[in-house]
Write a structure and sequence with these properties.
single chain; alpha/beta; Udp-n-acetylmuramoylalanyl-d-glutamate--2,6- Diaminopimelate Ligase, Chain: A, domain 1; UDP N-Acetylglucosamine Acyltransferase, domain 1; 3 domains; ten-stranded parallel β-sheet; 5 helices; 38 strands; 16% helix; flat; acyltransferase; lipid a biosynthesis; lipid biosynthesis
């Protein structure tokens, strides 16, 4: 079990310490669920009432909310970021692999760095390069000519196709597929003619890719995921997409081919972006939104309708179909009004 004193945490976080610096912390927890030896946080003032009953040995808290708490506290500007830092420090997640399992299949031409770990039944293809301290989970496949940067972790049953480059300190969760063929076909009198997808995938440093997410290889040039991008579970990223640095994409989102998303964007869950569109830096797309045109100005964009009683939804659907007719009638009325004036 990892542990650290409250005084050490204060120094690491640059936080103001109030209380006993010698208190030992070994885990993080919610205000309601915390016990002795655990540290919690208050990031939303509406949960202030939970401070009174918490059993946490200390709380990460803002200066404004600290007035309502008399126990041990670390006071800092953003308690939630502080919580994330402490959680990293006390993380007990096991490694994706330790050592090189005897059942792993490693091509003789592959180059392995120092401290590489490869799990049972993993397959490392020809001319693969694994950087220092890379972890390859059980059953994972890394295709030929691919490069995995130092410190990157691939969990169990990840599939990396050929000519895929991952940067340093990335995390790829189970079931993810990177470098599968993009959906490229030509139609010849009703018959689909497959277009070989000869590009690769290029992924930057500190990227996290969720479980069962798929990232297609490029048709000619590469699909690109830039530094610091975080991608949730079950996301589809099509061929030749470019995702700018530090963008976040939530679960079940679908990006069609040749989409460019800028830096520091947030794409809400279950959203969809049509092909060959671009989204400017700093844009926030709400969950369930269908993006069907270029977004040139940063801001918050939404298109999903809220849940409602089915009968009301049916009536509104009919009215929606009548909008064009209503619009034309209004135009006629406005024209007549101008003539009368």
């Amino acid at each position: 079990m990892k542990s650290v004193t409250l005084g050490q945490l204060a120094e690491l976080l640059g936080a103001e310490l109030r209380g006993d610096a010698g208190v030992v912390i070994h885990a993080v927890a919610t205000l309601e669920g915390a016990d002795a030896g655990q540290i919690s946080f208050l990031a939303n003032s509406k949960y202030r009432a939970q401070l009174e009953g918490t059993k946490a040995s200390a709380v990460l808290i803002s200066a404004k909310d600290a007035e309502a708490f008399s126990g041990n506290a670390l006071i800092l500007k953003d308690p939630y970021v502080g919580f994330a830092r402490v959680a990293q420090l006390l993380d007990t997640t096991p490694k994706a692999a330790e050592g090189i399992h005897p059942s792993a299949q490693i091509d003789p031409s592959a180059r392995l760095g120092e401290g590489v770990a490869i799990g049972a039944n993993a397959v490392i293809g020809a001319n693969v390069i694994l950087g220092d301290k890379v972890q390859i989970g059980a059953g994972t496949v890394v295709g030929q000519d691919s490069i995995i940067g130092s410190g990157t972790r691939l969990w169990a049953n990840v599939t990396i196709y050929h000519d895929v480059h991952l940067g340093m300190d990335c995390i790829v969760h189970s079931g993810a597929v990177i470098g599968s063929d993009g959906f490229g076909y030509a139609n010849e009198r009703g018959n689909w003619v497959k277009i070989p997808q000869t590009g690769g995938v290029r992924i930057g440093n500190n990227v996290e890719i969720g479980a069962s997410t798929t990232i297609d290889r490029g048709a000619l040039s590469h699909t690109e995921i830039h530094d610091g991008v975080i991608i949730d579970n079950q996301v589809q990223i099509a061929h030749n997409d470019i995702i700018g640095a530090h963008t976040a994409i939530a679960g079940s989102t679908t990006l069609a081919g040749s989409v460019t998303i800028g830096k520091y964007c947030i794409i809400g869950g279950n959203s969809a972006v049509a092909g060959h569109l671009s989204i400017v830096d700093g844009t926030h797309v709400s969950g369930g939104t269908n993006v069907t045109s270029v977004i040139r100005e940063p801001g918050v964009y939404s298109s999903a309708t809220v849940a409602m009683e089915n009968k009301l939804w049916r009536r509104n659907t009919v009215r929606f179909r009548q909008l064009d007719e209503l619009f034309q009638r209004v135009k006629v009325l406005e024209s007549k009004q101008k003539e009368d004036e």
